[in-house]
Amino acid sequence: MNLAERDQNVIWHPYTQMKTAALPIPIVRGEGALLFSEEGHTYIDAVASWWVNLHGHAHPYIAGKVAEQLQTLEHVIFAGFTHPAAVTFAERLLQILPQGQSRIFYSDNGSTAVEVALKMAIQYWNNLGMPKKKIIAFRDSYHGDTFGAMSVSARSAFTAPFWPYLFEVEFIEVPTAGKEEESINQLKALAAQGDVAAFIYEPLVLGTGGMIMYTPEVLDQLMAICKQHQILTIADEVMTGFGRTGRTFASDYVQHKPDMVCLSKGLTGGTMALGVTSCSENIYEAFLHDDKSKTLFHGHSYTANPVACAAGLASMDLLLQPETQQSINRIVQRHAAFSQSIKALPQVLEVRQQGTILAVEFEDGGTSYFSNLRDTLYSYGIANGVILRPLGNIIYVIPPYCITDAQLDQVYQTIRGMQEIVTGKRHHPRPYLDMLHD
Ligand SMILES: *Cc1c(COP(=O)(O)O)cnc(C)c1O
Questions:
Q1: What is the per-residue burial (b if ≥16 Cβ within 10 Å, else e) of 411-421?
Q2: Whole-angstrom distance, CA of residue 133 vs CA of residue 189
Q3: Which of 91, 102, 300, 349 could pair with 361 as two cysteines, CB 3.0-4.6 Å apart?
Q4: Which positions in this protein are listed as binding pyridoxal 5'-phosphate (predicted)?
Q5: Is the Cβ atom of 141 under 6 angstroms away from ligand 1?
Q6: Percent share of the chain, pLDDT over 90
Q7: Alpha carbon distance 299, 105 (integer Å)
Q8: In the chain, count of helices (H) and strands (E)?
Q9: Is 207 in the pocket of ligand 1 (CB under 6 A)?
Q10: Ligand 1 centroid to 218 CA: how many Å?
């Protein structure tokens, strides 16, 4: 049996209908933006392995730092104990995080980073003796797959079986072009009712929602309303963090700074799982009390795992090198030029870009997320040696920053090819987004 067949006997894959899925592609090695399969095929990782990889696969510098840490201290309980990697990483994160962040709480992934932020926000108001109940989120948002994170995410087909078990959330429109007023008015109306504990949002780009983008200006207006009504703001930068939007954090484009920030994905450069929830001193202080019931009773076995922190530190070293910023700028410019060249093509509904994130929305040909176009586009990419995982009719590129110009050309060429195979007529105006609201 080859690896894919052995996999089929024992593995249940994420977001995969195991009955109809093709055999998984066995990857045995990675280098730079490339992944190599057991059969000798080469793939350009244009989605950075689900948006996590920043500096390329099996990066020797990160690998060296991780190996060193593994031979020094692999793990230690993080209640009552500490270690150099966690402290140094926290110090250095606070230096680059948006202004106003002063404490780092470690967890394991993006979903747990969101859970922690929600618990901090709710308990903050409890600890102050003015419990507020409501949480506000964007209608098309995605904040993770655990129950709290699902609750603040779009009520989409992905979570339908769980709707009865999710806590109530007030959803507002995403303030995309033309919808700014509606979104602002909805937030104002909710804020005026009082009782709002927090607003959680993906700054500038809603990833899983379909790479939906909105401006820093309108986010600033939403933030101003929150500040005015003492609503805590939680920036979920799990996807947008660490250079994706062109700046270190998407929040760097905005004047008003969040009270909390959630990080994961690029946090370790894509090396291993780690989550961070940072918060302002103000929030932290609300938990300082002689009364032990005011404690944040949350933690995971692997909280602040030293190996993950070492990977995070190494990735940050690379991120802060001028060469990396140059690469980011290069990708931003090349994406912009490519956008210009395809946006008028007949099958292209819209091209969106924020920094290194590029999204192309195709005519759907009368399909939906669960039908053929998505699979056709995906297979076409694979056949052309490029990993692109469409969200329904939306194809996007989030490359590792080390991707070469030649590799980017191949990615762009593949997207052009996709445009040619999308021949159907449009049935829904926004098929993927419609699905989200079914
Ligand atoms: C991926 C993602 C999450 C969830 O992170 P996981 O590590 O997959 O649990 C949360 N928020 C956003 C914005 C994400 O893109």
A1: bbebbeebbee
A2: 16
A3: 349
A4: 110-111, 236, 300-301
A5: no
A6: 90
A7: 9
A8: 14, 16
A9: yes
A10: 23
Give the atom of ligand 1 at the shortest distance from the alpha carbon of 146: 9
- Measured distance CA(204)–CA(202) in Å, rounded: 6
Asked if 354 contacts 246 with a C-beta cutoff of 8 angstroms, the reply is yes
pLDDT at 202: 98
DSSP for 328-373, please give it: HHHHHHHHHHHHHHHTTSTTEEEEEEETTEEEEEEP-TT--TTSHH
Region of poorest pLDDT, from 139-148, 180-189, 354-363, 420-429: 420-429
Element (H, E) at 353: strand 348-354
- In terms of Cα–Cα distance, which of 15, 27, 102 is closest to 277? 102
What is the distance in A from the centroid of ligand 1 to the CA of 241?
Answer: 11
Give the pair of three-digit tokens for residue 242.
């660490």
Ligand 1 atom with the smallest distance to the CA of 275 is 7
The pLDDT of 107-119, averaged and rounded, is 98
303, 83 Cβ separation under 8 angstroms:
no
Q: How many CA atoms lie within 13 A of 174 on its CB side?
A: 24
What pLDDT band is residue 35 in, cutting at 50, 70 and 90?
very high
8 Å CB contact between 198 and 232: yes
* Domains (range + CATH), the chain: 3-58+322-435 (3.90.1150.10), 61-320 (3.40.640.10)
Provide the pLDDT for residue 433. Answer: 57
On the 0-12 / 13-18 / 19+ scale of CB atoms within 10 A, 95 is exposed
Coil, strand or helix at 242: coil
Ligand 1 pocket test target in 208, 265, 357 with most atoms within 8 Å of CB:
265
Give, for 236, the enclosing helix (H) or strand (E). Answer: strand 232-236
Residue 40 Cα to ligand 1 middle (Å): 31
pTM higher than 0.85 = yes
Ligand 1 atom at minimum distance from 109 CA? 7
> Which residue of 15, 115, 143, 206 sits with most ligand 1 atoms within 8 Å of its CB, as the best mutation to test the pocket?
143
Q: Mean pLDDT, to the nearest integer, of 46-55?
A: 98
Q: Which of 236, 252, 259, 364 is catalytic?
A: 236
Between CA 253 and CA 243 the distance in angstroms is: 12
Could you read off the pLDDT of 344-362 as tens digits, one per residue? 998 899 999 999 999 999 9
Q: Which of 43, 106, 124, 142 is catalytic?
A: 142
pLDDT at 430 over 80: no
Tell me what pLDDT residue 363 has: 84
